[in-house]
């Protein structure tokens, strides 16, 4: 059940030498469960980058990415009392983020089928041009990723961007390890073709 | 060559069998093209691992906290809706139960006292619903005693 936060304004504490020692995830989580908004906020800050890499990798840079990112943490907030810590917190959040992103892609696909000429972010994603001169490598990678089917994209995001093992990626996506490997293989060959101009330039 | 390409891609993510690894090593030694392919794949994978540093728009944590606070504030309203719907369902169940009791009591009355029931039916048009229910209830209670 949701509740209002009590005020516990610290996310770190001082040791005898007066230096700030960062609290562990477990400490922050315990405090958040006891009602500390600041501790939960610190967890959000700590894992924002990881969730963003997953969501932006899956959806591209678009307004929906921010919404899905927020929704990831809200889902976690609602479920944090049930979080037993079997998996690392980052892995748990990535799992939520990847599933919400896949749901958003399904929604996007349905919307695109209904309104094929819509000029929203879906249209932007299907832009065929990859311009290595754009200077922003991240943006180019992102655009290349958007050219993959969502199933292939999710494997690339988890394995190559987030660095999870094949086994972990398979667990998060609920598919066999062999499927992860074959999708990864095919995705890499396709990505290599798409990114060849950029990689040539870097060498 | 295509087989070697596949082996090369696989070699990044899984341990190849001794035989496959030997084949790949030999092919890499002999083929400049395959060596270039390996370099390209490595640099591509490096590019992707650099993509792990991402962020949302500024003040992301604050937006998350605002949404949580807003949803918390809306929670009592939805709880009220839940209890209202529960009450609505319970009311229907209560009415159905009352009707069932009346029907059962009437049935028992007819089975046990057919003559009384005939008289009662003759006069029933002159009675109110409450009178009918009360008399049916009293009769069935008397039968039970």
Query: Biggest β-sheet of chain B, characterized?
Result: none
* Helix content class of chain B: over 70%
N/C terminus separation of chain B = 97 Å
Say how many strands of chain B there are.
0
Radius of gyration of chain B: 41 Å
**Percentage of residues in strands of chain B:** under 5%
Q: Walk across the major sheet of chain A and give the strand order.
A: 1-2
**Helicity level of chain A, as a percent range?**
55-70%
The number of strands of chain A is 2
Largest interface: A-B, 48 and 36 residues
Q: Compute the average pLDDT of chain A.
A: 82
In short:
The complex is a heterodimer of chains A (203) and B (145). With 203 residues, chain A is an all-alpha fold. Helix content of chain A is 67%, strand content 3%.
List the helices and strands and how they pair.
The complex is a heterodimer of chains A (203) and B (145).
Chain A: E1 12-14, E2 20-22, H1 25-33, H2 37-59, H3 63-79, H4 89-114, H5 121-125, H6 137-145, H7 150-161, H8 166-173, H9 177-202
Antiparallel strand pairs in A: 1-2
Helix pairs in contact in A: 1-2, 2-3, 2-4, 2-7, 3-4, 4-7, 6-9, 7-8, 7-9, 8-9
Chain B: H1 2-11, H2 18-30, H3 32-50, H4 60-112, H5 114-123, H6 129-144
Helix pairs in contact in B: 1-2, 1-3, 2-3, 4-5, 4-6
Describe this structure in words.
The complex is a heterodimer of chains A (203) and B (145). Chain A has 203 residues and is mainly alpha-helical. Chain A has 9 helices and 2 strands. In chain A, strands 1-2 form a two-stranded antiparallel ribbon. In chain A, a hairpin with a 5-residue loop joins strand 1 and strand 2. Chain A is globular and about 55 Å long. Residues 1-11 and 119-135 of chain A have low confidence and may be disordered. With 145 residues, chain B is an all-alpha fold. Chain B has helices at 2-11, 18-30, 32-50, 60-112, 114-123, 129-144. In chain B, helix 1 crosses helix 2 (18-30) and helix 1 packs parallel to helix 3.
């Amino acid at each position: 059940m949701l509740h209002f936060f009590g005020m516990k304004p610290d996310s770190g504490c001082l040791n005898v030498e007066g230096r700030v020692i960062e609290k562990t995830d477990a400490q922050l989580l315990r405090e958040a469960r006891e009602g500390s908004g600041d501790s939960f906020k610190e967890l959000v800050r700590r894992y924002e980058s990881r969730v963003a890499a997953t969501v932006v990798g899956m959806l591209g840079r678009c307004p929906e990415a921010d919404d899905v990112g927020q929704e990831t943490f809200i889902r976690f907030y609602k479920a944090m009392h049930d979080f037993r810590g079997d998996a690392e917190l980052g892995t748990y959040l990535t799992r939520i983020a990847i599933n919400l992103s896949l749901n958003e892609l399904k929604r996007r696909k349905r919307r695109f089928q209904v309104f094929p000429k819509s000029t929203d972010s879906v249209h932007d994603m299907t832009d065929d041009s990859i311009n290595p001169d754009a200077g922003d490598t991240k943006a180019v990678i992102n655009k290349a990723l958007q050219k993959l089917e969502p199933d292939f994209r999710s494997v690339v995001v988890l394995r190559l961007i987030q660095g999870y093992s094949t086994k972990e990626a398979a667990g998060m996506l609920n598919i066999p390890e062999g499927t992860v490997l074959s999708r990864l293989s095919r995705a890499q060959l396709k990505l290599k073709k798409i990114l060849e101009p950029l990689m040539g330039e870097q060498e | 060559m295509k087989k070697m390409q596949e082996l090369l891609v696989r070699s990044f993510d899984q341990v190849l069998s001794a035989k496959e690894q030997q084949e790949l090593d030999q092919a890499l030694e002999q083929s400049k093209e395959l060596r270039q392919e390996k370099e390209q794949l490595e640099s591509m994978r490096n590019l992707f691992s650099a993509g792990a540093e991402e962020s949302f728009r500024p003040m992301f944590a604050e937006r998350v906290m605002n949404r949580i606070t807003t949803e918390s504030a809306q929670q009592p309203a939805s709880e009220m809706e839940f209890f209202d719907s529960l009450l609505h369902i319970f009311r229907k169940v209560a009415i159905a139960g009352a009707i069932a009791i009346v029907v059962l009591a009437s049935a028992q009355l007819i089975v046990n006292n057919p003559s009384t029931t005939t008289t009662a039916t003759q006069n029933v048009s002159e009675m109110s619903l409450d009178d009918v229910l009360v008399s049916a209830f009293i009769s069935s209670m008397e039968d039970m005693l």
